[in-house]
TrEMBL record:
Keywords: ATP-binding, DNA damage, DNA recombination, DNA repair, DNA-binding, Nucleotide-binding, Nucleus. This is DNA repair protein RAD51 homolog 2. Pfam families: HHH_XRCC3_RpoA, Rad51. It comes from Esox lucius. Gene3D superfamilies: P-loop containing nucleotide triphosphate hydrolases (3.40.50.300). Part of the BCDX2 complex consisting of RAD51B, RAD51C, RAD51D and XRCC2; the complex has a ring-like structure arranged into a flat disc around a central channel. The BCDX2 subcomplex RAD51B:RAD51C interacts with RAD51. Interacts with SWSAP1; involved in homologous recombination repair. Interacts with HELQ.
Length: 338
């Protein structure tokens, strides 16, 4: 990954510090220079620079793995949501090393789901947790510390004493990024945050909020710029998920397409495939973004007290919707404890 920090490529601390004084901190910064420029900045010979550039290039290239290695790791591929119905739908839980998107209408419990997952990640492994920290990036100012503590004590009253619940809260690291550039900058240096906080889960709530505020796609050029930004964000998040073998959870908003059926068989929020020529409601940010996530969870209202979940993997819809039994455990209404 081009945004990988030079400190994580095996270069000496002295060399990294020297390059940093010239604003060269990641692989992309260094590999964008010519060998002559690197010679001048690093104070090395031409042959040393060629070896240096080759080493950095190899360290940021995607690593190869075999099907056998993937099969051997299968027992450690999922992080349980603690909801049996949802885990069945996900075939074990949230997949490590991939992007899982949670989308649905406002108020359906997306942020509440993220806070519940944050609590679960801090639990000991013997209780199904990750015994790790959490990186929670909040772009909507929707994160509530009070709600986080309430979820922890309500779901696990026997475990979370006053001391433990405060310790749990100290392991959830919240970053509020309210502009597209701030969010992109945060993601580019997130590897250091993951290491320092020993994070086993990354949450971005939400990926659509700042993008939709700043980019009016009806204006010329904005759609291309937005797609480029989302592509950078997706590539960075995928690299982090794979490099640290952790689940990354994103929330997304919804959008309505009037008089356009979109793709044949697209999943609408009524759970019924759209018919060609009819309007439909779907996840925001378009087809380019939809190809960036590995798994999409669609939450919707069944009625005032129940939620329904639909899962799509890439472009395939999983038959057999998980109804209230899978999601009622985390919310019969907006205030029910996860």
């Amino acid at each position: 990954m081009a945004s990988k920090k030079l400190r994580r490529t095996g270069l000496s601390v002295e060399l990294c510090d020297r390059l940093k004084r010239h604003q060269i901190e990641n692989c992309q910064d260094l590999l964008s220079l010519t060998p002559i420029e690197v010679m001048r900045l690093a104070g090395q010979s031409y042959q040393q620079v060629l070896v240096l550039l080759k080493s950095v290039s190899q360290s940021c290239a995607p690593s190869m793995t075999t099907a056998l290695e993937v099969w051997k790791q299968r027992a450690d591929l999922c992080f349980s949501t603690s909801l049996p119905g949802l885990d069945r739908l996900l075939q074990g839980g949230l997949s490590r090393g991939t992007l899982t998107e949670v989308t649905g209408p406002s108020g359906c419990g997306k942020s509440q789901m993220c806070m519940m997952l944050s609590v679960l990640a801090t639990l000991p492994k013997s209780m199904g947790g990750l015994d790790s920290g959490v990186i929670y990036i909040d772009t909507e100012s929707a994160f509530s510390a009070e709600r986080l503590l309430e979820i922890a004590q309500s779901r696990f009253p026997d475990y979370f004493s006053k001391e433990r619940v405060l310790e749990m809260a100290g392991r959830v690291h919240v970053f509020r990024e309210l502009t597209c550039q701030d969010l992109l900058n945060r993601l580019k240096r997130l590897d250091e945050d993951i290491i320092s906080s020993k994070a086993g889960l990354v949450i971005l709530d939400s990926v659509a909020s700042v993008v939709r505020k700043e980019y009016d796609t009806s204006l010329p050029g904005n759609l291309a710029h937005r797609s480029n930004l989302l592509g950078q964000e997706a590539a960075t998040l995928k690299y982090l998920a794979q490099a640290f073998r952790i689940p990354v959870v994103l929330t997304n908003q919804i959008t309505t397409h009037v008089g356009d059926g979109g793709e044949r068989g697209a999943v609408s929020f009524t759970g019924v495939p759209s018919e060609e020529g009819s309007g439909y409601v779907t996840a925001a940010l378009g087809n380019t973004w939809s190809h960036s996530v590995n798994t999409r969870l669609i939450f919707q209202y069944v009625d005032a007290r129940q939620r329904q979940g639909i899962m799509t993997t890439r472009k395939w819809r999983i038959k057999g919707q998980t109804r209230a039994s899978s999601l009622s455990e985390y919310g019969q209404d907006s205030t029910t404890t996860l």
